[in-house]
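sry for the spam today, last one i promise. struct tokens for design, 190 residues
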């Protein structure tokens, strides 16, 4: 981590974490079977923390990105009692594949535009997306996050904020809630 990142507070706001996390836990417990409710609550807490920190600092803490990836890989066998080994291997492969694709996108963008467009935190968060979501839901997760980011930019523009080509956007603040929403929706359909 560089010197600038060390001076930033990468801890989530406790009020946001407890308030939103509590609401998320209640919704999960009310509508999901217990193993999915526990997984949803763990993922939700990590995603609330990640979205809060990224929105303030433009950084995703490793504790969030790696924690979510490891938790997703560990949860996969527990959530699929039919073939737990395959579930764990699939979650690991999806995590690696998502991270590799976003790393490639990051690299291509930087080469073409001569500046960074995605941070490594977004690449690490993509691994968590792959670990938690079925393959067919992953594109929907990224589409939801991108759409939310575009709506946010349009609202900022309409409110009179200057939006330029180099305007920074904390993409993780949109990808984190999208990951939880898509996991929750997938768990409801199980």
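last one done:
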């Amino acid at each position: 981590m560089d010197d600038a990142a060390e001076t930033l507070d990468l801890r989530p706001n406790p009020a946001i974490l407890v308030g939103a996390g509590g609401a998320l836990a209640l919704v999960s417990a009310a509508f999901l079977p217990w193993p999915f409710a526990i997984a949803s609550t763990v993922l939700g807490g990590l995603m609330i923390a990640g979205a809060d920190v990224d929105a303030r600092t433009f950084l995703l803490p490793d504790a969030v990105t790696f924690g979510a990836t490891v938790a997703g890989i560990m949860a996969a066998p527990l959530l699929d009692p039919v073939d737990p080994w395959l579930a764990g291997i699939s979650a690991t492969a999806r995590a690696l594949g998502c991270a590799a694709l976003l790393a490639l996108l990051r690299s291509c963008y930087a080469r073409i535009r001569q500046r960074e467009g995605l941070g490594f935190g977004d690449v690490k968060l993509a691994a968590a997306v792959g670990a938690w979501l079925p393959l067919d839901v992953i594109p929907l997760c990224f589409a939801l996050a991108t759409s939310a980011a575009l709506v946010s930019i349009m609202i900022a523009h309409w409110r009179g904020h200057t939006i330029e080509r180099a305007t920074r956007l904390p993409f993780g603040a949109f990808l984190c809630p999208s990951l939880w929403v898509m996991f929750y929706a997938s768990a409801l359909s199980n």
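Residues 12-188 form one domain. ok im logging off now
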